[in-house]
Write a structure and sequence with these properties.
The protein is α+β, with helices and mostly antiparallel strands. It contains two helices and four strands.
């Protein structure tokens, strides 16, 4: 599975100052700076992935009809993220795509 990072955070980490305490001499310092610049250029050249943050929510059972005409029980759910009512109960909200982790029953 791929892991995604922030390009800005990676570049910020690369752009931290290089001090003489981590270098042997001025030539070593110049080499480290060139390597840093090369690495930053490589990070900028990588195409951005089209990703979205994972949103977690839960289903809220808000209506129960025990005497439905067909004799079956019927429940209505609300998504805790978008608040839209749904009769579908699944791992993801069909409206906003939130990953549903559990069901909460309103009393």
């Amino acid at each position: 599975m791929n892991e995604y990072i922030s390009r800005g955070a990676a570049l910020e980490e690369l752009n931290k100052p290089i001090t003489m305490s981590v270098c042997l001499d001025k030539t070593d310092l110049a080499i480290k700076r060139m390597q840093r610049d090369r690495d930053a250029a490589m990070i900028r050249a990588i195409p951005a992935a089209d990703v979205a943050p994972v949103v977690h929510g839960h289903w809220k059972v808000v209506q129960r009809h025990e005497h439905y005409p067909s004799g079956k029980s019927y429940e209505a759910y609300y998504c805790s993220v978008c608040g839209i009512r749904s009769i579908e109960y699944g791992q993801y909200c069909p409206h906003c795509g939130a990953n549903m982790i559990y069901t909460e029953v309103d009393a």
